[in-house]
Design brief:
Elements lengths: L16 H6 L2 H17 L24 E6 L3 H4 L6 H11 L1 H15 L2 E5 L15 H8 L26 H4 L5 E2 L13 H7 L4 E6 L2 H14 L3 E5 L7 E2 L2 E2 H12 L2 E3 L1 H8 L1
Parallel strand pairs: 1-2, 1-4, 2-3, 4-5, 5-8
Antiparallel strand pairs: 6-7
GO molecular function, one term: hydrolase activity
InterPro entries: Isochorismatase-like_dom, Isochorismatase-like_hydrls, Isochorismatase-like_sf, TAT_signal
Protein name: Nicotinamidase-related amidase
């Protein structure tokens, strides 16, 4: 029986995650050119508009019904050893994403609010999908978020699918909700919304990776489910490719759709 994918590394024992990471170097070089072009077009393409046309946010945090939700706080996105670092690393570093997510975890725990993580895992059966979008093809090709199986943690510790070590004290404290995995980008098919509802949550402070993919998709679905959603714009980041700057694409949609778009500093002050 033939498989629908021709993953070269499946049959090549010499193919390693390090080679996958190295394979993104060309994309990183292209991203550098994109950054330079953007800088020439505008000193800061991410700056807030001088004269915004949309109404300002009136969202107010209620500690009794708010949760911090972090998407994909995993090595493959946030560690220099992750397979996507070549294309997301510059954005992660520019926004201090790793440190800002930790600040949110710390503030949320100190405030005693609900904290949830929505991870992204792929199992061997997922590599047998009959059709895929562009990013799905890429993620499967480079082994992103791969685990041995849904019932096995063999090889999980320290892998690309594992949580960043910096975040483990907050995630593994026995109180943080770790939802079932999402498979594409949004939480439509995991139990995140159920877990939040069971905690009496209807407000979400949203952060994590990556901005125009899982983070934006979580924002959209949670809004559709009736949650009030604030996105923390400097606690996310995205790939920069010749096809476009993922962070800028997401930022525009955050402004258009979220109930609020805040900075980490603003959220920490509110939770304090």
């Amino acid at each position: 029986m033939s498989c629908c994918h021709n993953h070269d590394h499946d049959n090549d024992p010499k193919f390693t995650r390090r080679q996958a990471l190295t394979g993104t170097a060309a994309l990183a070089a292209a991203a550098t050119g994109l950054v330079a072009t953007s800088a020439q077009a505008q000193d800061n393409p991410y700056a807030e508009p001088a004269e915004p046309a949309l109404p300002p946010s009136d969202m107010k945090i209620d500690l009794s019904r708010v949760a911090l939700v972090v998407t994909d706080p995993q090595n493959d996105f946030l560690s220099p050893d992750g397979v996507t670092w070549g294309v997301v690393g510059a954005s992660v570093e520019q926004h201090n994403t790793v440190g800002n997510i930790e600040s949110l975890f710390k503030a949320a725990k100190a405030a005693g609010i609900t904290v949830a993580v929505s991870p992204h895992y792929y199992y061997p059966t997922d590599h047998g999908w009959k059709f895929e979008g562009a990013l799905e093809k890429l993620m499967h090709k480079i082994g992103m978020f791969d685990r041995k199986g849904p019932l096995s943690l063999e090889g999980f510790e320290g892998s690309g699918a594992d949580f960043l070590d910096l975040y483990k004290p907050y995630i593994n404290d026995g109180k943080t909700i770790v939802s079932s995995p999402h498979k594409l980008y949004g939480p439509e098919h995991n139990d995140l919304a159920l877990q939040l509802r069971k905690q009496g949550v209807d407000q979400v402070i949203l952060a994590g990776m990556s901005a125009n993919l899982c983070t934006e998709s979580h924002m959209r679905e949670l809004l559709e489910q009736g949650f009030e959603v604030a996105v923390v714009k400097d606690a996310t980041a995205a790939a920069m490719l010749p096809e476009g700057d993922g962070y800028l694409a997401a930022l525009i949609n955050f402004r258009y759709m979220a109930n609020a778009v805040w900075t980490t500093e603003e959220v920490v002050a509110m939770l304090g």
